Amino acid sequence: MATFTSSQQFLQWLQGRFGSANFAKWQTIRQPFYSFVNYPAAGANTFQLFGFATGGAAATNLQYTNMPKAGSFGQQMLLLKSLRFTYYWSNAQNILNAPLSAGAAADVNVAAAEFLHGFVQAGYGELDIGNKPYVQIPRPFMYAPPADGCITNVSTFGATLTLNNVGPPETLAQFDTLTDSADLERNTENQYIVDPPILIEPEQSFSLSVNYPSGAIPLIASTYFTNNFYIGAVMDGILIRPVS
Amino acid sequence: MPAQSPAALQAASNIAGFATGLGNDQAAIGLLVSQIASADWNSWQVVRYSFYDYVRIPYAAATTAPLTFFSVPLGQQDPIGLFAKTLEQTNMVQQGQFGQQYFVIQQLRTHLALAPKARQNATVAATTNYVYDQQVFSNKYRNALSTGVLQMLIGQKLYLTLPQPFRFAPPGFGVAAVAVPFDSVVSATGNSYLSQSNNLSDVYNLSPPQLIEPAQTFQIQITFPDKGLSFNAALDGAAQPAYVDAGVILDGYLCRPVQ
To answer: Do B111 and B13 fall into the same domain?
Structure first.
């Protein structure tokens, strides 16, 4: 794969490569490609992304991927400019800051646990084009975060207070704050920039994976996440496609 | 696979601003050309790349033992953790060198990382209220952030000395919008969460960047000439040690031969 440091250089390469191609019939647009796969309760050693195309079956529709083909962009090119690892909850209502049951001091009820002590804190991400690694980063969900600028409002208070009922004076038996919050970094400045950009050619096979070679990381907050949690990645860049 | 043009290589080097003590990019390119001699520049490729290495911090007792990075490559045993290193810990395939490729270090990050719950010892991994019980660990973590001296040697020559490296050279990544829960039964002293800076602009930039040539040996070490690290008795109500990994990540431009 070629890499480029400027648009001019990229155009020169295109001209050299395609000779008399009519560039009036090529169109360039910004287009992110994304792919999400299910994260099972027990975790897994490898999550292979972009390995399936958009389909009608469950978990392959446009919510999960917009890939035209499995493992390649088909008859079009992508100039990859940034990379984001992120997640998708198919049942995300009231997950963060969710009020818990009184006295339920257990990790299974703490959504933030996944981010603070779970899959986010381990593993590595790798982008291979052909069979050659082009990106290899530790803790991919932190190193290359979604950085989508989404505003996250943290509201932390929510409490139960249990008294011993021995008063007066009354004594405190238990106090809990029952809300929690944590998320991936949303600040756009933290975006992982592919610099110089990498051109992925038509039909060029590639793979993007999240791996836990030191052992799978099970879900912690199983109350919320089991069966409805997906991890994924977004490859953002400039799509070059033929037009008629 | 398309070839990388000489212009592309030069442009990349302009971005990288090769620092060899020669003063400018042109001089650096001259140095490269003279060293590579008849190498086919069309077969070299420049990509952004990261090399990283995590080591397990001694946890049996408080320690001032130095932490040495990039010395135990992929597949070999971490001397403290006693596990074979995988790509989760390092992507170095050789000890203390990048092999037959150039690497321009643009940024240096340190990462003081509490291992995930599933990677802690069996007792800790089995606790059901791990998130609620981080106060003791957080105190020890805060102390650790404020200690140590990082030094980078290329060959035998000292190129960098940083005080309090976990603060001075943070990872620039992490978890955001954190609020941790509290339960008075689990932790009578409270609960907290602490991290290094998430802000990418806080990452330590090498300016000018540092070129590491093919097969050039280097070493990065964090020493603790004054206060050390203390991650023993840090989890599970201070009954268990905390497994904490210290990492160094070098981010920059890799110049490698391609076919």
So the answer is: no
